[in-house]
Amino acid sequence: MTPTGNSPKILVTGGAGFIGSHTVVSLVEAGFEPVIIDDFSNSERSALAGLRAILGRDVTCYAVDCNDAAAMDDIFQKETPLGVIHFAAYKAVGESVAKPLKYYRNNLDPLLLLLELMPKHNVKNLVFSSSCTVYGQPEELPVTEETPRLPAQSPYGNTKSIGEDILRDAVRAQIPVKVMALRYFNPIGAHPSAQIGELPLGVPANLVPFITQTAAGIRSSLTVYGDDYNTPDGTCIRDYIDVMDLADAHVQALRKLNEDTTEASYDVINIGTGRGETVLSVIKTFEEATDVKVNYVIGPRRPGDVEQVYADVSKANNVLGWTARRSLAESLRDAWQWQQKISL
Ligand code: WQD
């Protein structure tokens, strides 16, 4: 897709990462011109080649720490974007417990900088990457946006809650930004071309990359963390959202913000499928979708895991006109295709 000279530019911080790179594809397909800002501390430059293979053209990328005020100011000056999608953040729950200051610094300072630079450059639209982790273990399910946030179980989760509070308070103080905080549930899958996907560094903490690495023989077996929960098969329930559906939700949020004529606004929206799946059902669906067996054992519960969380997505449907379209089987098949590609 060749950009027209006047395609509105969108700064995508963390745009070489898992969700960021898939959102870059959706932005181009929707007629926007993404501008990636990524310091590659938690992503790989190979994502840029993957994007070129999908899009048939290069995407502007600044290899910059989005906490670098001078560099970010120059980028705003040069690119004059219509909006910003802020993905850049560390997201390893376990690491955040061991290194909290690294997480507070990296996940919050760049957000504060954006809130200074956007008004300076008259950029009003901001989509913020938040997480269902702010809900902890909800009393009632499915969770709506009115479900109370619970104290974070990790510094990572706390940076998402604090980030939402910073944005809410900035808007209350009439800082001229319009903000949508998207609370992701569990992003999975990969672009169907297998040119981009999830690149977990080291041993994957998340379920689906561990499944695909086990299926590929990289891991000898998957440990299912507990089967004594109060769920149909005893394993935890999550809402697994396809990364391309998640990417499309960002484009819809941007469009909605751009239509909004108010000076300052703040809103939060759940982005999930609205369906809960147990760990064992994900494994079974993977095996059926790929015809590949997954070796697994049942192990002890993982500390910090909530028993079940899945989204009420009626607000995303009503406000964004968005709904998840891809099935769990499609997402797992795409994840497997991607795993086979990077295991070559
Ligand atoms: C899912 C389920 C595990 C690995 C985390 C973050 C959250 C968000 C998504 C960023 C759980 C089980 C997992 C394994 C297993 N990230 N599991 N064996 O913990 O729901 O959410 O990633 O925003 O903030 O907290 O995702 O994929 O780690 O676990 O049994 O080897 O799979 O117990 O029930 P989680 P997950």
From TrEMBL:
<dbReference type="Pfam" id="PF16363">
    <property type="entry name" value="GDP_Man_Dehyd"/>
</dbReference>
<dbReference type="InterPro" id="IPR016040">
    <property type="entry name" value="NAD(P)-bd_dom"/>
</dbReference>
<dbReference type="InterPro" id="IPR005886">
    <property type="entry name" value="UDP_G4E"/>
</dbReference>
<keyword id="KW-0413">Isomerase</keyword>
<dbReference type="GO" id="GO:0003978">
    <property type="term" value="F:UDP-glucose 4-epimerase activity"/>
</dbReference>
<dbReference type="GO" id="GO:0005829">
    <property type="term" value="C:cytosol"/>
</dbReference>
<dbReference type="GO" id="GO:0006012">
    <property type="term" value="P:galactose metabolic process"/>
</dbReference>
<comment type="pathway">
    <text>Carbohydrate metabolism; galactose metabolism.</text>
</comment>
<comment type="subunit">
    <text>Homodimer.</text>
</comment>
<keyword id="KW-0119">Carbohydrate metabolism</keyword>
<feature type="domain" description="NAD(P)-binding">
    <location>
        <begin position="11"/>
        <end position="334"/>
    </location>
</feature>
<comment type="similarity">
    <text>Belongs to the NAD(P)-dependent epimerase/dehydratase family.</text>
</comment>
<dbReference type="InterPro" id="IPR036291">
    <property type="entry name" value="NAD(P)-bd_dom_sf"/>
</dbReference>
<protein>
    <recommendedName>
        <fullName>UDP-glucose 4-epimerase</fullName>
        <ecNumber>5.1.3.2</ecNumber>
    </recommendedName>
</protein>
<keyword id="KW-0520">NAD</keyword>
